[in-house]
Amino acid sequence: MTATSAAAAAARATVYGYPRQGHHRELKKAVEGYWKGRVGAGTLRETAAMLRAANWRQLADAGIDEVPTGDFSFYDHVLDTSVMVGAVPDRHRAAVDADALDGYFAMARGTQEAAPLEMTKWFDTNYHYLVPELGPDTVFTANAAKQVAELSEAVALGHTARPVLVGPVTYLLLAKPAPGVAPDFEPLTLLDRLLPVYAEVLADLRAAGAAWVQLDEPALVQDRTAAELNAAARAYRDLGALTDRPRLLVASYFDRLGEALSVLAKAPVDGLALDFTGPAAANLDDLAAVGGLPGKRLVAGVVDGRNVWINDLAASLSRLGTLLGFADRVDVAASCSLLHVPLDTTAERDIDPQIARWLAFARQKATEVATLARGIAQGTGTIAAQLAANRADLASRATSTLTRDPAVRARAEAVTDADARRPEPYAERAPAQRARLRLPALPTTTIGSFPQTSELRTARADLRAGTLDTAGYEQRIAAEIQDVISFQEKTGIDVLVHGEPERNDMVQYFAEQLTGYLATRHGWVQSYGTRYVRPPILAGDISRPEPMTVRWTTYAQSLTDRPVKGMLTGPVTMLAWSFVRDDQPLADTARHVALALRDEVSDLEAAGTPVIQVDEPALRETLPLRTADRPSYLAWATEAFRLTTGGVRADTQIHTHMCYAEFGDILPAIDDLDADVISLEAARSHMQVATELADAHYPREVGPGVYDIHSPRVPGPDETATLLRTALAAIPADRLWANPDCGLKTRAWPEVRASLEHLVAAAQEVRSTL
After folding, report:
1. Catalytic: which of 128, 159, 522, 710?
2. Is the pLDDT assigned to residue 592 strictly greater than 80?
3. Known catalytic residue: 710?
4. pLDDT digits (tens, 9 = 90+) for 643-654
5. 209: region left, alpha or beta (phi > 0 left; psi from -120 to 50 alpha)
6. Residue 3 has what pLDDT?
7. Do the Cβ atoms of 73 and 27 come closer than 8 Å?
8. Per-position b or e across 51-61, b if 16+ CB within 10 A of its CB
């Protein structure tokens, strides 16, 4: 038997992670019930164990030979890693020592006494992780209880299981200096202190029966310095040299490993798991260039774990055939954890069956992985029926009239550079806007949404069920808008919003009104903690049949003399928080969406809306992981925003909003958006972005958030005023706004009332000192 045929015969199917929530979001309900005191800790843990068992059973039934453990989390897997290595901030230590579960949630959400960990995006996804806080005095201690317990559960149920951990290098590269630590402190300097803790965890997992442990190192697909690559080499030299350990599988995903591939290929580990989809397809050539992985296991991620389109099985089999010569054993996997896609297409009864054939959610992707593994292990004859059906489904999509609209394409091709630029520079627009709006110094506003109450959700559900007619539903929406406007007026907010009671989600709401989009009913994907979203599916060319927001915005404006913002989601975020087309360049799709939104902006302005906010929280999130790929992305992304907003008058003020990302490396692009006002998350990061904008000489108006809406904490007026003064040290008063970090839909009304009252009081107090 040749080496290639031996590798094929040994091929097995695996995945790196699976959606956590359950078919009916049982985890969300249990966790939130625990927070509210309706569910006890024992019941919460029983629900989690049930969901884990169901996930493993689904994977095994699909044909997955080796299931992951440790990927399940009550809130976030990076937070779980912080607990595993004992990296608990001092302000939360007492809470963790008193009750591990309550302390865990305190780190995630904060308490009235202690702020939570900072939250930001997991690489270029819409998943948010809790940022580890480290300093030169950090002492790591091993606590593998969660990882060992979940492995033991899977083994007891008869599964072959592989624990999945965040790798030590990625963990440190994701970390930030703790509060009070010098900002230039580099957490990676703690590597030698952290590795013995990982060694202890690996020994505990081996004792619990782990044959393999996966260490995820996605940070290595980014551009890394020589020192960082040397740290990775040292980490896996030391871990590989351990005698009391399972076999080690080092995994990367989301892009090509590049320079790090040769480092890991030479390391004394037992296997690598690589992504071979999208830009990471370059890993194939890079793997050939380093001479493959002789004597090692290769786990080949050939099924896209981040999008919902069916796999091209024939193309994947061809790629796997090439890879068989590169390692002693080649297994098949999805490109990354299936956490990033919904659970099961069979729950979607409202999607046209013809279109449903084009889709694969987590459960279907697991089946694709197993089918491919069987194909290379037993021969393609064993999967002939699946290959034939797959070819037919791919052809159906390629020839469908849904995917192409000649009118949309003609309009996009006619766009000129002038269409994507406002004719007046900001220096001319600003006086016109100030004269029209007549706002005080440090004007106050919110980001857009107000709490989505249980009454609103019930009304929406009743409308879908047919137990509430359209007129009754619209009366409920109108009453909610009246309440929101009245509250803002009484509180003293300067620029109001209508609160978005009619919107289910900032992307889905628009997708449901645009042609070319598909909406799901059960396609939930975790964004952070218990926050789940249903990303729509971008299936065809996009257009706007009729106005989407004008009616409720103008109604809100009729209730007040203060300016009311029109609220839209920007084109890049419409792509980033959807499952996008993979059959044309993203730049083309972005232009189609931008033109549809441009029509909405035009109609809002014609209706007299003086302020229009076009949110782009995903601009930074979608930034390519490799520096070389960024200029082309930023060029089309910023053009799409300007194309959306470029047709308005000088005295119409354009706002945009971004949150929970690292903005420092895209400041020129933020400037290139040419928005009049930008609001950004800043509370958890202690106004870091205000300093970054000042250092970059950002010339327009800024609203760095002074209220962290992802925590139940209600900051007092003094705390909020302190943040405003910190911002004032960087941003001149005539260009500074006061606002929350993000929309308020996830918060309860009591928190919102108190926090906004404190925000206004803080702004008035600071304003009085100017």
Report:
1. 710
2. yes
3. yes
4. 999 999 999 999
5. left
6. 60
7. no
8. bbeebbebbbe
